Each structure stands twice: as structure tokens, then as C-alpha cells.
Amino acid sequence: MPQAVYPGSFDPITRGHLDLIDRGIAIFNRIIVAVLSNPKKSPLFTHQERVEMIRDETSRWGDRIIVESFDGLLVEYMKTKKANVVLRGLRAVSDFEYELEMALTNRQLADEIETVFLTPSVEYVYLRASTVKTVARGGGDISPFVTPSIEKRVLQRYAELKSGKTI
Ligand code: PNS
Q1: Is any atom of ligand 1 closer than 6 Å to the C-beta of 8?
Q2: Torsion over CA of 29, 9, 154 and 58, rounded to 10 degrees?
Q3: 3, 32, 48, 116: which one has the fewest Cβ atoms less than 10 Å from its Cβ?
């Protein structure tokens, strides 16, 4: 299969996202990781920071992984990339309604675009980027959820916020 677009907020990228990329790259020649610039909730990291972090974490795959940010409708971004497969992770039943709604909305907007769901490794089925932030904010250990370099950046960001720095 030529290429897929893996969209998300990635605030920040977790071990679950990396696991999904790992599985996706076994199926697709190229994955474009598309980082939503302005997610509804105000993100912990700017879109440039999120793109940079994902690039660092995925550099081992070379040019088979492309990381970009996008704004507006996903299907419009996909048309500019000439891509017609959306890759998403489906963790638990709780994800299903949200994912089905997105997949069907995207299909309504652009019938040629298909969504492919992959299931992450069992140790990541409960993992969400928001959980990482909640645990970090409360002073808990996030090392099972993110790589050491992401852990460092998350802890640094909370230390900056604590000291009153605006992002
Ligand atoms: O990681 P997330 O936050 O669950 O990812 C959600 C994302 C970025 C895939 C979704 O919000 C999205 O595609 N946003 C772009 C706007 C869009 O195209 N909406 C139509 C589908 S509902």
C-alpha cells in the first residue's frame, strides 16, 4: 500500500502512537503524520513543538515517515497530499463512537477516502495523551507512557508553567 495519513493532536506523542506507527509502517510504504494545528482544547505544546517531537521520535524510519501540521478539514489536507487512506488507532469500545463519527463524516465529505483502524499493543489500549498530562501535572511517573525525551519535555513544560511562563 502506498501511503496513509495518520492524523491527530499528538499533545504529546505517546508510546501508543509510536506503537501504531510501527504497525502502520509494516503495511504502508509511507505514513504522513498530520498534526492538527489548533485542537479544540488549548494544547500543552505548540504545533511546531509537536511536529518536532514526532520527527525526533520517528527519525529511525527515515523518509517513510513525514511529519507535517495541518489546519481545517482533514479531507482537504489529504487531497493536497493525494492520499486516500486515513490511519487511526482503535483502542477500546469507548473509542468506537467518536471514530465512527469521524470516519463517516470524512466519507460524506470525500467518498474516495477510507479509514483504516489498527489496534495498539494491549499495554497501550488505555493510554491517552490527556492521561499523560494529568499524571505529569500530579507529579506521577509518566515513563511507561512516553519515551525518555518526551518525558523530559513534558516535565520541563510543567515546570515552566509553574514558574509563570506563558507558552
Ligand atoms: O488525536 P485526536 O485529537 O483524536 O485527533 C482528531 C483529529 C485531528 C483526527 C480530528 O479532530 C480531525 O480530523 N480534525 C480536523 C477537522 C476535520 O476534518 N473534521 C472532520 C471529521 S469529524
Answers
A1: yes
A2: 10
A3: 48
The whole-number pLDDT of residue 167 equals 67
pLDDT recorded at residue 165? 74
Confidence at residue 130, expressed as pLDDT on a 0 to 100 scale: 94
C-alpha of residue 86 to centroid of ligand 1, in Å: 11
| Residue 145 main-chain phi, psi, to 5 deg | -100, -30
Query: Which positions of the chain have pLDDT values less than 50?
Result: none
Cα–Cα distance, 138 to 28 (Å, whole number): 38
CA distance 37 to 142: 24
Q: What is the pLDDT of residue 35?
A: 98
Spatial strand order of the sheet with 30-36 comes to 65-70, 30-36, 3-8, 85-89, 114-118
- Whether ligand 1 lies within 6 angstroms of the CB of 73 is answered as yes
Query: Which residue has its alpha carbon closest to ligand 1 atom 3?
Result: 9
In the prediction, which pLDDT does 7 show?
A: 98
Ligand 1: which atom is nearest the Cα of residue 109? 20
